[in-house]
Amino acid sequence: DATVVARLRQAGAIILGKTNLSRLAGDPQCISPVFGATRNPWRHDVTPGGSSGGAAAAVAMGFSYMDPGSDLGGSIRIPAAYCGVYGLKATENRIPRTGHIPHLPGQPRSVRHMLSFGVLTRSIEDLALGLSVMAGPDRIDTEVPPVAGVAGRARTDRLRVAWWDDFAGLPLCDRTRAGLDRTIGRLTDAGVEVVRCFPDAFDPERALYAYGVLAGAEIGLAFKPWERHLIAMAGRLIPKRQPLTRAFTQGLRFDWRRYNAALNIRDQLISAMENFLDDHDVLICPTAPRTAYPAFALKPLGKPPTLVVGDRALPFLEATVSMVGLFSLTGHPVVSLPAGPVDGLPVGLQCVGRRWGDEALIEACAQIDRIVDGYATPRAAAS
């Protein structure tokens, strides 16, 4: 068993089995060459998200109580948003990766940065339970520190919420915009201290660049040299309006100076976000620019596909993982909180807390959850 599975068993959980996910956990959809595509329980013609789409669908339908997952590019948060459940990406290195599958072929532990672990559930309380069982060192994953998380600091008298919706000019679809606006409106009406603000020193474009370079460099170790070269050469043809895709292909052309520069950007942005969260209990923003869409198979060496978001056609990576990638880069704990369905599809919002303050973040999210719509069953929505 992986460490997280062994700990769940020890705590009394009954392991039902495995759920579907995309190949190498590398697609924000859920299409497997072995088991095919997983359908979204809200609408069978759209994806449940990925890579942990099977887990999110199972939790949403009540097949399972909770499902553990990993998250480098939204593999917990995107399915949680698309299926209307709760998803926790814990602070980077809070939960051991021991036994995590897949390792990249021939390159175990090559992804040293930004990979986090967590859980999908139907309630905030179950996120807290899952974290309490799975977190902490196991004497195998040496990057998990032998210390507990920071004690809860979210104030119960007056919660301080920041929110933001403008990330490098990325648009939002109508459903996502409506879900965000409704949530902020309800928090304001409930007397929560809500401010639209974002750290001045946190540039989303620099963040996406660093995220793409680091992901390309570390994931790229699984590629054969000729594959890295071919993809990197093709990346030179990618337009500047696809910054995340371009940065990823630059990372594939591994250069020590570029890689180190990206790590330094990461350090600067971690500091900027930590300083910002000194004055706010949580930062709320969309999990993804748009809600679930019809799934389609990606071609590894084909032209990057596009998705329509609002009135614009965005490159696939920018339309799916851009907003989750910001906080993968910094390693902050994030809860994807269901903000209720809009026109028949769930909307998810990211709630970002201080590093190592996972419990405080969950506490703040519990207060928010009592005000907003929260979890609804797909069957209830259909009726």
Count helical runs: 13
Fraction of residues in helices?
A: 25-40%
Order of helices and strands: HEEHEHEEHEHEHHHHEEEHHEEHH
Low-confidence stretches at least 5 residues in length (pLDDT < 50)?
A: none
Beta-strand segment tally: 12
Strand order of the largest sheet: 3-5-4-11-12-8-6-7
CATH architecture: Alpha-Beta Complex
CATH class placement: Alpha Beta
CATH topology value = Amidase signature (AS) enzymes
Radius of gyration: 19 Å
Shape: globular
The proportion of strand residues reads 15-25%
Structural description of this entry:
The chain has helices at residues 3-10, 53-60, 77-83, 124-134, 174-189, 204-219, 225-235, 243-252, 256-277, 316-320, 322-330, 358-369, 378-382, and strands at 31-32, 36-37, 66-71, 86-89, 116-121, 160-163, 193-196, 282-286, 306-309, 312-315, 334-342, 345-352. It is of the alpha+beta class and 383 residues long. The protein has a single domain, classed as Amidase signature (AS) enzymes (Alpha-Beta Complex). The strands form 3 sheets. It has an 8-stranded mixed beta sheet with strand order 3-5-4-11-12-8-6-7, with helices on both faces. A two-stranded antiparallel ribbon has the order 1-2. Strands 9-10 form a two-stranded antiparallel sheet. A hairpin with a 2-residue loop joins strand 11 (334-342) and strand 12 (345-352). It is globular and about 55 Å long.
